[in-house]
Write a structure and sequence with these properties.
The structure is a single chain. This protein is of the alpha/beta class and 230 residues long. It has one domain (2-152, 195-229): Rossmann fold (3-Layer(aba) Sandwich), CATH 3.40.50.150. The chain contains ten helices and seven strands. It has helices at 2-7, 10-20, 24-31, 35-49, 64-72, 85-93, 129-139, 158-178, 181-193, 198-206, and strands spanning 54-58, 77-82, 98-101, 114-120, 140-151, 209-217, 222-229. The chain has a seven-stranded mixed β-sheet with strand order 3-2-1-4-5-7-6, sandwiched between helices. Helix 3 runs antiparallel to helix 8 (158-178), helix 4 crosses helix 5 and helix 8 (158-178) packs antiparallel against helix 9 (181-193). The longest helix is centred in the last third of the chain and has 21 residues, at 158-178. The chain is globular and about 45 Å long. Mean pLDDT is 88; it is low at 1-7.
């Protein structure tokens, strides 16, 4: 299983998230000390400033960001897409009515369908960052925005303590909450390997996005990346 996690084999990752779906939100809230709601509110405020009429929340999971987007931008159409159907059961309970089981590497939407695409803590789990970003760009209209919210690594000396937490404390606590400690060892590994800061901005530019920006939050534990389609 460790090998499959490392390679991000899609069926294995689907099963992983299906197993932790029932406790996923609780684990995230407890392990972030409640900061996750503030991170989503920050993303919602950025998206609201663009006054979008159609938003795709890619890798929506249990729909927590989609719900925040609906709260802050009630006039917008919010579509949630995720490749793990059991996670969408929880999104539906949050009142997200437009939900699609979809692979982020091959989205079932026409070109230019959305004003904004958001991806919160999901790009890390996709087999190809570049293919996923190109797909996000394809379904964005000209002038539309992409927003990525994901974990990063804080600057030293906090980075040392954070890595101890990430690799040794988090899997134990989350494993106790979900019964799946291996899942959180995997997720910790994806955080380490995910492009951060300038590396992500370079990737976004390579995928055709302009005006790319990286804004760290909570001392760099997470970063909000934005880019605009030409």
């Amino acid at each position: 299983m460790e090998s499959a996690f490392t390679q991000k084999e899609p069926n294995t990752i689907q099963r992983l998230f299906a197993r932790i779906a029932h406790r996923y939100d609780l684990a995230n809230s407890l392990l972030s000390l409640g900061r996750d709601s503030l991170w989503r509110a920050n993303v919602g405020a950025r998206v609201k400033s663009w006054a979008p009429s159609a938003i795709l929340d890619l890798a929506t999971g249990s729909g927590v960001l989609a719900q925040e987007l609906q709260r802050q931008i009630p006039g917008a159409r919010v579509v949630g897409a995720d490749f793990c159907a059991p996670m969408l059961t929880f999104a539906r309970r949050r009142g997200i009515t437009e939900l699609v089981v979809a692979d982020g590497l091959a989205l079932p939407f026409q070109d230019g369908s959305f004003d904004v695409v958001t991806i919160a803590f999901g790009l890390r789990n996709m087999a190809s960052y570049e293919v996923a970003l190109n797909e996000a760009g394809r379904v964005l209209r000209a002038g539309g925005h992409l927003v990525i919210l994901d974990f990063s690594l804080p600057n030293p000396p906090l980075r040392i303590l954070y890595r101890i937490y990430l690799h040794h404390v988090l899997p134990v606590l989350a494993g106790w909450l979900t019964g799946e400690p291996d899942a959180y060892h995997y997720l910790a590994g994806t955080i380490e390997g995910f492009p951060k800061g300038e590396a992500m901005l370079v990737l976004l530019r390579r995928c055709g996005f302009l005006d790319c920006d990286a804004r760290p939050l909570t001392m760099g534990v997470v970063t909000v990346y934005t880019g605009q389609k030409v």
